[in-house]
Specification:
The protein is of the alpha+beta class and 651 residues long. Strands 11, 12, 14, 15, 16, 17, 18, 19, 20 and 21 form a 10-stranded mixed sheet that branches. Strands 3-7-6-5-4 form a 5-stranded mixed sheet, covered by helices on one side. Strand 22 (582-589) and strand 23 form a beta hairpin.
């Protein structure tokens, strides 16, 4: 039997509130977690959310009239009132973290930091499990709205509260303009594709379903050796403060002010040994040693770390798609610190993201911070990083395992690549880049060769689309007869270079979309009517670091100087190993002036059905039908199993 002992001063109102808190604990924690600012960091925000909910009961006990006196046959009313007051208390405490200014008194900040606050975790970092691309995009958008709007969004979408009920809760929690917060929350929900309630209840926003990771083990071991001495000094200081402190609390706030997150110090930075890349099975950014003439410039490194933790006013911040701006939870790795043109540049890596900090060499002003995802980078996608983002040229820092570097123009496959000069610290000479909207006269790309100490005769191409790390270009040739489906291969062979010469200009609209790799797949070949020669159908898939990919279907012929874009699709699995069955259709004008509808399917397609301006069904993987001027048609492709393939058609 489980016995529960209650203190004499705990009445039925508090008992009811405690029962409600236990029952709705997850909902209250998620509400506090969403309302707390993301700048606190994932670990600290999770612990604060639990702490605010657990301290809601003591605040109710000390707040006069917080709970109604129970009357006969009004238990339901008391329960609803208790739930409302708990929500108000949790909201009031969480919202205070957004509107409270930083304390100018170091003694007050220290006294706040020394106050005991449960739960307390030592040696572990706790944070919600990451969600998918949609959840990450929603998290990025939530950062741009106020804490009250985030709370209103959760209360409206997940809890299903009416606008009036949410308005009452926010007003009771001290929000100055509840109507504006609700309006911003409704706009956020309306502007998001799909049900926002399903995303807000996913693991990305669940502060009760957590995963754990270690803290910085090296830094922790150093601090343990200093712990005994610091503990004695801290105890003395705390005792003196308790004896001499006056009433320094912030008026109107029932929750203590959060201590500011301290940025890591230059001494905390991880520095990989110079030859680690030659003695590891993990060839990625973790194998990069620190390079650059200012890798020991503590003042520069300190500014870079501080900016990543707490960007100063006026700092230009650029986040790649699906990338969070949160400060690193463990000491990042130093990859580079040096002077590039007229700016000082620091490159950091926290295990999943790259951060590039730069400032004017003449002063520490005009600072810029760019952060991009690079999780699961490999030999090729971790081979180069852009150190600057000029209008016409860029310099790259190459991986230590790159033995040869060259530059070539994708639009001229018959022209050999020319050598690219690289300094001893791995920084290249300026490389031409093409900005969006500047036509398609050239498409310069990096052609790199890995050291034979890692893999022999391995060359690959990287293309700069404006991100921190260039995208890896690959190629799949036309399917052979009876062979297995092809796998992406390096785009350095003659057939690959020819395909990319026709594909490159069609991908000029990618921009800085967080592209990790682009694969050009020649999925079908077709003989054209009226002696039009041969056409090749290509599906170019751009995969992003966050997972989703965009595809562009291209038709090229030997008689036409440039390829035509047949169709585009966003956030699709088509043309990947999870979407290998595709078909496409478009209108085409022959050399004699006649119009046709062309259609083609990938290897497993056995039948094509076209409808629209013309209608027909043909067995096989290709089809051509006479048609009127600029015909509009739809295609349906059938596999031998009877299943349908992904179909693309001209807009």
């Amino acid at each position: 039997m489980h016995l529960r002992l209650l203190r004499p001063d705990v009445g039925p109102r508090i008992q009811e509130a405690e029962a409600v808190l236990v029952e709705r604990y997850r909902d209250l924690v998620c509400l506090a977690h969403l309302a707390l600012p993301a700048s606190l960091g994932r670990h600290r925000r999770v612990l604060l959310a639990h702490s605010l909910v657990q301290r809601a009961l003591p605040r109710l006990r000390t707040r006069p009239g917080a709970l109604p006196v129970p009357r006969p046959r009004e238990e339901a009313h008391v329960r609803q009132a208790a739930e409302r007051r708990l929500m108000v208390e949790v909201l009031r405490a969480a919202l205070a973290y957004e509107r409270r200014p930083r304390s100018s008194s170091p003694w007050l900040a220290l006294s706040v930091a020394l106050r005991p606050r449960l739960p307390f975790v030592v040696g572990l970092r706790l944070f919600p499990r990451p969600g998918g691309a949609d959840e990450l995009e929603l998290a990025r958008r939530l950062v741009d709205v106020s804490a009250a709007s985030r709370a209103a969004c959760l209360l409206r979408a997940v809890h299903g509260l009416s606008e009036a009920a949410v308005h009452d809760l926010l007003a009771s929690a001290g929000v100055a303009d509840p109507a504006a917060a609700i309006s911003a929350a409704d706009s956020l929900a309306a502007g998001h594709a799909g049900p926002i309630a399903a995303l807000l209840t996913s693991q990305e926003f669940d502060a009760c379903a957590l995963q754990a990771g270690p803290t910085d083990l090296l830094r922790r071991s150093r601090r343990v050796r200093l712990g005994l001495g610091v503990a004695a000094i801290g105890l003395t200081v705390a005792t003196a403060m308790v004896m001499t402190a006056t009433d320094d609390t912030v008026p109107g706030s029932s929750a203590p002010a959060p201590a500011a997150d301290t940025a890591f110090r230059p001494a905390d930075l991880v520095r990989t040994p110079a030859q680690a890349w030659d003695n590891t099975s993990r060839v990625d950014f973790t194998a990069w040693p620190p390079r650059g003439s200012r890798s020991r410039d503590d003042a520069l490194l300190r500014r870079a770390l501080a900016t990543w933790a707490h960007p100063r006013a006026g700092t230009r911040i650029h986040l790649a798609p699906a990338t969070t701006a949160a400060a690193p939870t463990t000491a990042p790795q130093l990859l580079y610190a040096g002077d590039v043109a007229d700016r000082a540049v620091v490159l950091l890596y926290d295990g999943t993201r790259l951060a590039r900090y730069s400032e004017s060499r003449s002063s520490a002003h005009s600072a810029e911070l760019s952060v991009a995802r690079t999780d699961d980078a490999d030999l090729t996608t971790a081979a180069a990083v852009s150190l600057n983002s000029g209008k016409n040229t860029a310099r790259y820092l190459l991986a230590p395992w790159i033995s040869e570097a060259a530059i070539r123009d994708l639009l001229r496959p018959d022209v050999l690549a020319r050598p690219l000069r690289t300094a001893k610290d791995g920084v290249t000479q300026p490389v031409p880049v093409v900005s969006a909207g500047h036509g398609c006269a050239s498409r310069p790309v990096l052609q790199l060769r890995s050291s034979a100490r890692i893999v022999e005769k391995h060359s690959f191409l990287l293309a700069d689309w404006g991100g921190l790390s260039p995208a890896h270009l690959t190629y799949i040739p036309l399917p052979g007869k009876g062979g297995p489906p092809g796998r992406p291969r390096e785009a350095t062979g003659s057939a690959a270079l020819l395909a990319w010469a026709h594909t490159a200009c069609a991908l000029g609209s990618l921009g800085d979309a967080g592209v990790r790799s682009v694969n050009a797949w020649d999925f079908a070949e077709q003989d054209l009517p009226d002696r039009g020669g041969t056409a090749v159908w290509t599906c170019a898939r751009a995969d992003t670091w966050s997972g989703p990919g965009d595809v562009t279907v291209i038709l090229r012929t030997g008689r036409e100087p440039s390829a035509r874009t047949v169709a585009r699709a966003r956030s699709t699995a088509a043309c990947s190993r999870f979407g290998q069955n595709i078909a496409a259709t478009t209108g085409w004008r022959s050399p004699t002036g006649h119009w046709y509808v062309l259609a083609a399917g990938s290897r497993a397609v056995t039948r094509l059905t076209v409808s629209g301006d013309v209608s027909a069904t043909r067995q096989g993987r290709t089809l051509d039908l006479p048609a009127s001027r600029r015909p509009q048609a739809h295609v349906r492709a059938t596999l031998a199993t009877g299943e349908q393939a992904n179909a693309f058609e001209s807009p």
